Structure formats: structure tokens, C-alpha cells
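Supplementary Note 2. Why include the ligand at all?

Several targets in our set were suspected to adopt different conformations when bound, so apo predictions alone were not considered sufficient. For every target with a known small-molecule partner we therefore ran a joint prediction. The input for uridine-5'-diphosphate is given below.
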Amino acid sequence: MQSPIHLQTRIRLQDYEPVVGRSSIEELKMVAEKFSGKIIQIINSTFVGGGVAEILERMVPLINQLGVDARWDVITGSEEFFDVTKKFHNALHGGPAKISAEDFALFSEVTKQNLEHMKFYGDIMFIHDPQPVGLIAMKKEIGKKWAWRCHIDVSKPDKNVWKFIRNYVVEYDAAVFSAPNFSQELPIPQFMITPSIDPLSDKNKELESATIDGVLKKYGLVSDKPMIVQISRFDRLKDPLGVIQAFQMVKKSLDCQLVLAGGTATDDPESTEVYQEVKKKAEGNPDIHVLLVPPESDIDINALQRAATIIMQKSLKEGFGLTISEALWKSKPVVASAVGGIPLQIRNKLTGLLCYTVEGAAYALRQLLTNPEYAGWLGRNGKEHVKQNFLITGHLRNYLLMFLAMDQHSDVIYL
Ligand code: UDP
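The joint prediction is reproduced in C-alpha cell form.
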């Protein structure tokens, strides 16, 4: 399936200059020149929902703005296939795994179908996450350079699933991980590249207060008391029930409200069930708002993040956790679990507060609610940290440099 028309958004390279500085843009242009006449084909498993789609939706048009031909395709698969890949996802994150021989067979079968019906035309093939990892089989036929981008924390994966995925990964020319501790022993070069947010996207741009008020009204929210917000797909690994527990502890002594807002992703079949669980747990508590946000509600998400007093991300496992950078970019104090790529973004007590348990989360929330000056200081530091490290222009530069470096043979390269 080829990328939707809405990708041709009005992204203009020069609009980034006031945010990241002229030298960053010039550097990008210089690197991009090396790709003249080449095609970068990007493949993942969904155009909508989750961090990967979020990044690609902005990055693909930005690459094109640099005069480089980048195109985005997704694999197709049945509901059963995405049930299996969701199980793989949880297992690679280290969760309990019950994966049968039939599951592995279905994965291989759908991979085969995609190999048969998809078009492979890139000079550089950039494959994201485990769902399409098997497309590497095409390398034997067409050659070209292939990179596998892993957005998952695979530092302690289920052994069987990793073994299965690894058999594909070793055929690539390079693998990319989001944090140094995510990498695995592999016989191919590995690159460490953190994801990023786009400061100019609808998700992150400045909003008028009337827009924020309008969104609050639309969701039936009143900003009459401090608002704790977690934005996440309804996924158990985001621990929405743990967020409710922490909130209930805080609520005993401090008046506040909780907003759990999220949607579903087309490649995540569990989300409806989790949403129902969360609704049930919140029942009878008028200060807990569980909002089902439709896809492509970037302004709504932006407004909810901006309306928040504190943003939470109490994930049990996390890849990078884009929602953290999104929150910090809005100068918000953040309470988040010390998992996955979150500690790269939250330097404890400097750019936010890390927590390890429900009690720890409640303690951090109380600390911030009772000390708004400290909360504001953390938020301001956080914005600077994101500006230095997690914006789309730097991310893109690192990818392009990686493609250039893929011919060289070094084991681990930090960009
Ligand atoms: N997001 C969204 N709508 C939702 C839930 C999440 O637009 O209902 C966005 C969120 O703002 C972030 C991305 O989806 O940009 C989630 O990325 P993250 O890395 O935090 O988690 P993932 O979903 O990839 O595990």
C-alpha cells in the first residue's frame, strides 16, 4: 500500500530555520546532495497510529523537500497477522510470550505474500520494526542497501521470538536502535539514533488559547483544577490502570483531575479491550476522564498536552516514548517511568521526574502539584533538552549520514 495523499503536507524547509538555526539546515542540504538521483524506500506496517507513523508522516515530506526522492509503503496483513505481530512486540519487550508454531508460520506466510505483491524500487531500503522485517528476502533478488530500524527496546527479549527475528536482521546491511542499551549482538553494523518530534507539526506547534479552550470544551473538560494527562494508545504496556492508581493516591490529599486520552492503532488489535478495562476502572469517578481520541486528532492532542498541569507516561515498557519529548517541548513537567528511551529524555530532577512504581509516581505527582515553581523549572529545562537532541532535523541528518556510512564496516557507530 502506498502512502496517502495527505502526506504531501505543506512542509517547507526554511520554516525550520528559526527553530533549529541556519547551520543545521545548511548541513542537511549538504548531506542530502549526496542522494541525488537515488530513491529511499521506507516500509513499515501502518500509516496511522503510534510513534513510527507519527515520525514518518513528517519525515518523508521533509526528505522530499531536500530534493531527495523518499517514498513510504506499508505491508498488508490480516487481523490474525497483526495479532501475531502484537504478540511478537510484547515478547520482544520482554513480556510473557505464548507463541505457537502456527504463529511463526503465519508470519512467514504473510511475509511471503507481501514479497509477492509489493514493489521494491528503492536504492536504499529502510524497513521499520519487526512486522516487515522478512522483506529482506528480496535483497537476494534486487541487491541494494537495506537498513532495519528497530523502535522497540529489545534489550531483554523473549529468546525464541528474538531468534526468529534475528535470522532476518542479520541479512541487513545495518540495524538502527534508539538507545545504546537496546542493541543486541549482531554481525552487522549497528547505529544508535534517537527518534524525534517535529516542532512545526499540528501536534507540537504553538496554539491560541481559544483553540485549547475549544478542545477542552469538545471533550467535556473544565480547567478548574490541576489536570494530569497521559496520552497513549490503549495498551497495557502504557499502564493506564497504574496511572489511575497513582492518581487515586494523590487525590486523597490534593484536588486534581486525570485525563487518559488515546486512540487505537490499525496494527494493535488489543486496544479496544484495554480501553474497556480502563473505562471500567474509572467508572464512578467524575474526575477521571477516559477519552477515545480519533486518528488524526493532532490539534486535540496538542491542546490536551498544553492544557495539562503535569504530563505522565507511566509505561511498563517503552521504545523511545515520543509523548515525552512532545510534553517537554511544551515546557511541561513530566512524571515518567524509567523504562526504554524515557531516561534519555527525562534526566531525573533536571528535565522531569522518573518513577519506578505506582507509589513513586504518586509521590512525584504530589511533589510537582505542591511546588509549581520547581515544576516550571523542570519544564523549561526539558524544552531546551528536546531542542538540543530530539528534533526532526537532527534525526533526519543522522539517518542520511547512516545511509552514507552503511558501506563502512564498523561495529557500533554513535551518531
Ligand atoms: N498519539 C496520538 N493519538 C493517540 C495516542 C497517541 O496521536 O490517541 C501519538 C502521540 O502523541 C505520539 C505517538 O502517538 O506522537 C505515540 O508515540 P510513542 O513513542 O509515545 O508510543 P507508541 O505508541 O509508539 O508506543
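The first strand starts at residue 39 and ends at 44. Residues 372-389 form the longest helix (18 residues). Comparable summaries for the other entries are listed in the accompanying table.
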